[in-house]
Amino acid sequence: QPMTLTDAGEVFLRKGNELLLSYQEMLDEISFCTQKEQLRIRVAIPVTETPPYLPELLTRFAKEYPDMDVRIVKVEPKEAAKRSSDYDLYFSTLPLGNDLENVIIKEDEYAVVLSSVLASRIYGDHWQEIDEQLRLYGDLYALRDLPFIFLTNRIDETVLDQQIIFSDAGFTPEVAFQSENSELNCNMCKLGAGAYVTTMEYCNRFFGDSLNKNDGMLLYPIRTSIDPVAIALSHRKGMRLNRADRCFIETARDFLN
């Protein structure tokens, strides 16, 4: 015989079906949000500089992963750990501090770059001897008579890596120019305002064909205590990387190497 529901049974069945439908809708929405998160990535870069290779890297990433959305945000290196919820990956040269997990993309080294015109003006006939010392030993102290250009943060402090490098070198240089913008600093260096310390990768990408020509820019690797000297994509410790994060890391590694 067919079963007949009581009034209470009919209420239970109707409410139960509504509950199951709501549960399925919730699962669908969670799945949709999760899929969107898997396709979106926020990449932070330092306030003071935009890596000169970034536009080309982003173009390659967009070509390889057209379904993924990359947003660029700017975060002070000294605030990278505190503001780790504002980004997924932080694209920067180490050191960044101990509160982040660093995925090293490329080993690098620090270098000093200066115009050949500035070198001739300050050292004259002695430049050949200085040039040889730099090539053999990478000792920044050899350039202690030069004015230097400094990268500063928004409260006018010299960035950490430059502080460490000049402490290692054992001298306090004359400040020719300083700004929060690395591209501006490189252009001032190109015009002969002073020497500039940054990474080899940055110099090679920014100055390109003008490096180590008689009438161009001179580039010398230098010794520092910073270890490792590397370009890294960093994230907060314990964070689980999603698909977009992993794809961006691999694309960056392939591109820079």
In words, what does this structure look like?
- The chain is of the alpha/beta class and 257 residues long.
- The chain has eight helices and ten strands.
- It has helices at 7-38, 54-64, 116-123, 127-137, 160-169, 182-190, 200-207, 243-256; strands at 40-45, 69-74, 89-93, 100-107, 110-115, 147-151, 174-179, 195-199, 217-221, 230-236.
- The chain has a five-stranded mixed β-sheet with strand order 2-1-3-10-4. Strands 7-6-8-5-9 form a five-stranded mixed β-sheet.
- The protein is elongated and about 110 Å long.
- The model has no long low-confidence stretch (mean pLDDT 86).
Keywords:
257 residues, alpha/beta, five-stranded mixed sheet, 8 helices, 10 strands, 23% strand
